[in-house]
Amino acid sequence: MSQPDLDLWPIGNCQVSALVDRSARIVWGCVPRVDGDPTFCSLVDGRHPDSDDAIGLWAIDLEDSVSVEQHYVKNTPILVSRLTDGHGNAIEVVDFCPRFERMGRMYRPVAFVRVVRPVSGSPRIRVRLRPTRGWGDAHVQRTSGSNHIRYLLEGQQLRLSTNAPVGLMQEERSFRVEQPLYFFLGPDESFAANLATSVEEMLGYTRQHWQSWARGLATPFMWQDVVIRSAITLKLCQYEETGAIVAALTTSIPEHTGSERNWDYRYCWIRDAYYTVQALNRVGALDVLEGYLGYLRNIVDEAKGGYIQPLYGVLGEAELTEVQAQRLSGYRGMGPVRVGNQAYEQVQHDAYGQIVLSNVQAFFDERLLRMASEEDFEALERVGERAYELYDKPDAGLWELRTRQSVHTYSAAMCWAACDRLANAAERMGLPERQAYWAGRADEMRERIEQAAWRPDTNRMSATFSGDDLDASLIQLLDLRFLSPEDPRFLGTLDAVEKGLRRGSHMLRYDTEDDFGLPETAFNVCTFWLIEALHFTGRDADARELFEEMLSRRTAAGLLSEDIDPQTGELWGNYPQTYSLVGMINCAVLLSKPWSAIR
Predict the structure, then answer these.
(1) How far apart are CA 200 and CA 206, in angstroms?
(2) pLDDT tens figures, 383-424
(3) pLDDT digit string (tens) for 485-504?
(4) What gap in Å lies between CA 251 and CA 244, rounded to an integer?
(5) I need a labelling partner for 44 at 20 to 30 A (CA). Which of 234, 304, 572, 595 fits?
(6) 360 pLDDT exceeds 90?
(7) 473 near 494, Cβ under 8 Å?
(8) What is the sign of the dihedral through the CA atoms of 370, 371, 374 and 378?
(9) What's this model's pTM, rounded to 2 decimal places?
């Protein structure tokens, strides 16, 4: 049996999501939200999904299966898997989570839907539906009726409605597929309508919804498939009820073998979400921005002008206590499996900049249903005051070091950007006194940062005010417009970062020991930052070559995780990771030929 890997296909509906492996098994999925208890936890259980004692999965096993071909329905997160056995018998499995408008509201139930259709011959299948509760407890009480099975989980119940033989499913016996089989695992409510008709209608409506959403994207001429798939998956990372955007759909996929760098990414980082809406804005997906700004307004209200955490729960929860799930041995047995994230306790000053930068478009963009008001500006001014107060104070930095703090240049520049963009917003609002006030603060901060971070002896900016440190976040001084691509200081910094942190076609975050020793894998978004910088500094051919190399590392679903082994090209870290998807969108938009090239 080959080892499980991250070659996984996400499905979802902005309420729940799941990951399907290359054998068409659901191996990860949480309820009732992305940050909930995993009903499907096989991905981090350590036991192989093929094993007799596997738990936390939903497998449609075709007898004597020899091949599986998978693809998404065009411009949707609806997955189609074709399984063929050694005799040519075949089935098609369609996986999706319903999402469409109904009666003026978005229908996005806590539900996973599977359709199994016979394609050729006389295929026989075995259904293994083995949900868990309480982070890896397979002892789930169940009851059944003639057309359903109820699963009693912690704090909720799920009901499987189906036209498949319930008794054979409960005993996991094989049976022949002679007609389409429908499986709706969702709320514990009886299915009043005809199951087959209802599921087919849901499938059609869900397809129409996603294809209509994708049709509204302003894609570049080149790499359209890359951009559309990344955008759809970023959309799946938004918890629509509140507008929160999670950093990834998983927890505790290690950064590399045995690293114990296993973190829970199913929360909303202010930083990651800023980069997500920035990328989606570039392709016109304003609905994600509008939802996220609503989430941010509630965060800012709760802060009352005070401390902003680096991350919050999808409902805005401030406390995300980190514990270990003792029943689960981890991805490939590499624990621990962490629930919650201690980083919520950290001080990371860049969040103040990212709140303002996420909001500033709302002062200018006439397309938005709710443009920013003077009241919004006043609320952001309180955030700006915190940015000014803290920009040159120590924090944990964007890499979230757990045991030491420094004054980080990236955090300081983000705080500068908060004040600089507030000046722009004030000018837009016709508030000349406030414009002058924030422009003055930004000028003062810029002078201090330039003086404290520039190292003339090594001809580069330092990642900290106190040392002469390299990390890939220095490249972001370009994106923030703190330095221009022609500035000799940026060119010197880029040269130093590339020489110090580039490993072949990949970029490390940093190359110094942290709380867990030396990092062994490259951080994918840092490579995309390098690609952007190469483009803006006139090395377009190098940028394109590196971009194509990164695209070749994608999973079959067209996605990337957080990290990659520079030696083997194997993906590590949580998946799919918003940073990495953002990088693909941004670079495709930058490097593409214009549409006018073919008109």
Answers:
(1) 10
(2) 999 999 999 999 999 888 777 789 999 999 999 999 999 999
(3) 999 999 999 999 999 999 99
(4) 17
(5) 234
(6) yes
(7) no
(8) positive
(9) 0.97
